[in-house]
Design a protein that fits this description.
mainly alpha; single chain; 91 residues; 3 helices
């Protein structure tokens, strides 16, 4: 069996994915403010929305694994941390 994430690895992954989601959302908003919301020019913003959804699905699945592996110490805040605990990406 492969080794599972440690608590520290889950925490780092949670901070990183939360920061990545924030950055994708920020970039999507910038596109929505600069380009039409429909038609071919809206495709990049739609693709970023898909990416945000994929990151959220990964976070949810990882949170489920975290709770299954370590129910006594798992926390929702691991994969859904407060803003001050998220990684800064792209700034």
């Amino acid at each position: 069996m492969k080794p599972r994430f440690t608590l520290d690895q889950h925490a780092e992954m949670g901070r990183t994915l939360a920061g990545l989601r924030d950055e994708l959302a920020h970039r999507r908003t910038a596109l929505l403010n600069a380009y039409p919301r429909s038609g071919p020019e809206a495709a990049p913003a739609r693709h970023l929305a898909d990416a945000i959804e994929a990151v959220d699905k990964a976070r949810s699945a990882l949170e489920d694994l975290h709770y299954a592996e370590t129910p006594d110490i798992a926390s929702t805040g691991t994969y859904w941390p407060q803003a001050e605990n998220r990684a800064t990406i792209g700034h």
